[in-house]
Structures are given as structure tokens and as C-alpha cells.
Write a structure and sequence with these properties.
Oligomer: heterodimer
Shape of chain B: globular
Low-confidence stretches of chain A: 277-298
Mean pLDDT of chain B: 84
Radius of gyration of chain A: 36 Å
Low-confidence stretches of chain B: none
Largest interface: A-B, 33 and 44 residues
Distance between the termini of chain A: 71 Å
Number of domains of chain B: 1
Order of helices and strands of chain B: HHHH
Number of strands of chain B: 0
Radius of gyration of chain B: 16 Å
Helix content of chain B: over 70%
Number of helices of chain A: 7
Chain lengths: ~300, ~110
């Protein structure tokens, strides 16, 4: 006999939800065939269902456990690949340095044969120092940048972190103060070296560096130390130090050795032609802002 | 007895074979798990009430799994797979709660 219909029919859903349906299933079946022996097909189906239930639950447990090691394995594969590639790069870089030395020796022999060659050799030597083609040694200034106390270097939104713009400012201030050659954490800068950030890491010449950032510049150390804070970039850096607690220290060094730049890719090399020459000199010339750094983040 | 046998076979198959769940089946695994739990608790309750019936167990588990899978499949086709999954899980979870509550009342008298 159907119950009298609820005038608020939409309430049926709520009634349905609280009604205990699960109890009815078995009770009803029990009323229908009480005492009857189950058919053998039912028993087989029952065993199979038990197996399916247990299998599904076991599978779920196994799958969850399998997911974590899988992620760890993938990470390990990537780490291995990075390490292997870094080793390959190191080997290739050593080869580059060796080949360059051979080339320099051969060049020296050739140029020494004439007066014109000797003049050329002198010019080449000065250009090589400026472009990072050769290692340079001399007195200079060391600028060390480090994160503020208690800042988290991994947090991209931490204002106390050293940003790529800070390193750019330090480098620009050093060029503007008359530095002849600069290296950041042992990575020599050239006219095409980019200083930028990728996530929380600062990339110099596309190599990730870790703080503290040690910017070494070769030049007249006393003059550099005097000029550094007076440049525009130096003042900007000072603002950052005052406002966000980024640590900055200057130190005059009697002798610094800057390594050879390993990335001397002729990105925009051109063979001079006699026709109308429209080579776009993107940077250089002024020597003030040779860092092609496009910052992708701003200090909050 | 034969239930225990079935359970054992299922666990052994699931753990030892560790079949790779194909990608298209991934959304159905949690549904199957919840449906399996529902069947287990429903059976346990019926057992305690003395009305357990293996026919009902088989049919309720299979129909729940099939209907839930169909609903999720339909939802996937309509672009509301996640919502339908939620609905299915909610309904089955409520049944599990009801069954567990009944078991608790019976066993603990509370």
C-alpha cells in the first residue's frame, strides 16, 4: 500500500537519503527464500565476487604504494641525466680550453714573424682579456651578496633573497666603476652573458648559482671601491640593502684570478661584407651595461 | 569457508600479479574500491543480522559497480565526470556509514 504522498514532493530526496536502504536488500531476500539451498551457480558467483572484492581492495593498496616509488624513480633518472650531462659538458669545456691553447700557440708563432703581426698580437691580447677569452689575473674588488638573515632562499616571494636584478646591479656597478673583467661565483662574464633567474635560482651564463654570490672584478681595487657605491646601480643596490636586509660586502683583493669564459658562442657573429653594413651592435660600446639580463621577476 | 577461499584468491591475484591498471580505467578504480567496501560492510551487517544471502551479495556488488562505472563513464562523456564520481562516492559512502552504524549498534549495543 503506497504511503500518502508528501505534498512537498521535492523533500522525497531528503527522505530517501536518510532512509536506510542498505538494510532492506538482505532482509527482503531472506524473506523470499528462507531455508532454500543456494544453487551451485550462485556459490561460484559468490566466490568470484569475493575474489573480485578482495582483488580490488588489494589492488588499490598496492597501486597507492606503487605510485610513490615511481615518482622517486623518475626523479632519480632525471638527476642521473643531469649529472651525466654535466660531466659531458665539463669534458667538452676542457677540450675547448685545450684547443684554444693550441690555437693561441699557433697564432703566436705566426704573428711573431712580422711587425704588423706583433701589433696585432698586442691588440688581440687586450681584446681577449675584455671578452673573457683568456684567464686574467690582477688586483681587484670582491663584492659579496648574500640573502638577509632568516630568509628562505627557496621561497621566491621572500624579499630578503638576492634577486637576479641585485646581481645585475652589482655587475653593472662594477663595469661602470671601471672593472676590466668580472666573474660571478667563478663564471666569467662576457658581453653576451645573461644574468637571470629561473624559479628561485639565479642563472649566470645559464648556470644555476647558489648564494652567497661572489662577484669578482679585476681593476684598480681602490678606485673600484670608491666608485662602486656612487654608480646608479650601486645606489640601487644600496637601497635593496637598506630596505630588505640583503647583505652586501666589498673587499679589496691584491690578486684575483678569473677563469676563461667557457661560453663563447658567436651568437651574432657576422662576416664583414663590403655591402651596406647594418650589423646591429646590441650591447657593448658604452661598456656600462653589457649584461643582457632581462629580469623575469620583480621584488614584491 | 568458500568466501575465505575467494578472498584469499583475490588478494593473492591483486598483490602478486599487480596488473597495471590501464589509464582509461584509472577513474573507475576508486569507485570500484568504494563499491567493494560497501558490499563488504553490507554483507557483514547481514551476517550479524542472520540474513546473509550470497545471491544478494553477488548481485548488489556487481550492480553497484556496473551502475557506478556507467554513471562515471556517462559523466566523463558529458564533461562532468568528476562531479558524478563525487556523487557516486557520496552515495556509497552514506551506505557504508549506515551499515557500519548498524554493525556498531549490534556489536557494541550503542
Amino acid at each position: 500500500m503506497p504511503a500518502p504522498r508528501d505534498p512537498a514532493a521535492s523533500m522525497a530526496l531528503l527522505t530517501e537519503l536518510v532512509r536506510d536502504d542498505a538494510a532492506e536488500e538482505y532482509a527482503e531476500a531472506a524473506r523470499r527464500h528462507r531455508g532454500a539451498r543456494p544453487a551451485w551457480t550462485t556459490r561460484v558467483a559468490f566466490v568470484l565476487t569475493c575474489a573480485a572484492v578482495a582483488g580490488v581492495l588489494a589492488l588499490a593498496v598496492v597501486q597507492r604504494q606503487a605510485v610513490a616509488p615511481e615518482a622517486e624513480k623518475a626523479r632519480q633518472v632525471l638527476v642521473d641525466r643531469v649529472t651525466r650531462t654535466q660531466e659531458e659538458i665539463a669534458a667538452l669545456e676542457a677540450e675547448v680550453v685545450q684547443t684554444r691553447a693550441d690555437l693561441a700557440a699557433a697564432q703566436e708563432v705566426l704573428l711573431a714573424q712580422s711587425d704588423e703581426g706583433a701589433a696585432l698580437a698586442e691588440r688581440i691580447a687586450s681584446l681577449e682579456a675584455a671578452t673573457g677569452y683568456t684567464a686574467v689575473q690582477g688586483p681587484g674588488l670582491v663584492v659579496v651578496l648574500d640573502s638577509a638573515d632568516g630568509s628562505d632562499p627557496a621561497a621566491t616571494d621572500d624579499p630578503g633573497r638576492v634577486l637576479d636584478t641585485d646581481v645585475q646591479n652589482a655587475v653593472n656597478a662594477l663595469w661602470a666603476s671601471g672593472a676590466e673583467a668580472i666573474a660571478v661565483n667563478g663564471v666569467r662574464l662576457t658581453s653576451t652573458t645573461a644574468i637571470r633567474s629561473a624559479g628561485a635560482a639565479i642563472l649566470v651564463d645559464f648556470r644555476p648559482l647558489l648564494p652567497p654570490y661572489r662577484v669578482e672584478a679585476i681593476g684598480d681595487s681602490a678606485a673600484l671601491a670608491v666608485a662602486f657605491p656612487r654608480t646608479t646601480s650601486g645606489r640601487e643596490l644600496d637601497d635593496v640593502v637598506q630596505q630588505f636586509g640583503v647583505k652586501l660586502s666589498l673587499e679589496q683583493a691584491a690578486s684575483l684570478t678569473l677563469p676563461v669564459s667557457t661560453a663563447l658562442l658567436p651568437v651574432r657573429a657576422r662576416v664583414p661584407s663590403l655591402a651596406t653594413d647594418t650589423v646591429a651592435g646590441s650591447s657593448g660600446g658604452t661598456g656600462v651595461d653589457p649584461v643582457a639580463g632581462t629580469s623575469e621577476e620583480a621584488r614584491p | 569457508m568458500i568466501a575465505a577461499l575467494g578472498l584469499l584468491v583475490g588478494i593473492v591475484l591483486g598483490v602478486i600479479l599487480q596488473p597495471d591498471v590501464p589509464l582509461w580505467m584509472q577513474p573507475y578504480l576508486p569507485i570500484a574500491v568504494v563499491a567493494a567496501l560497501d558490499a563488504v560492510f553490507g554483507a557483514a551487517r547481514a551476517l550479524l543480522d542472520g540474513v546473509f544471502d550470497d545471491r544478494v551479495f553477488v548481485i548488489s556488488f556487481l550492480s553497484n559497480v556496473v551502475v557506478a562505472a556507467l554513471l562515471v563513464f556517462l559523466g566523463d562523456q558529458l564533461g562532468v565526470g568528476a562531479q558524478i564520481s563525487t556523487g557516486v562516492v557520496v552515495v556509497l559512502a552514506m551506505r557504508i556509514f549506515a551499515n557500519v552504524a548498524a554493525i556498531r549498534r549490534r556489536l557494541l549495543k550503542a
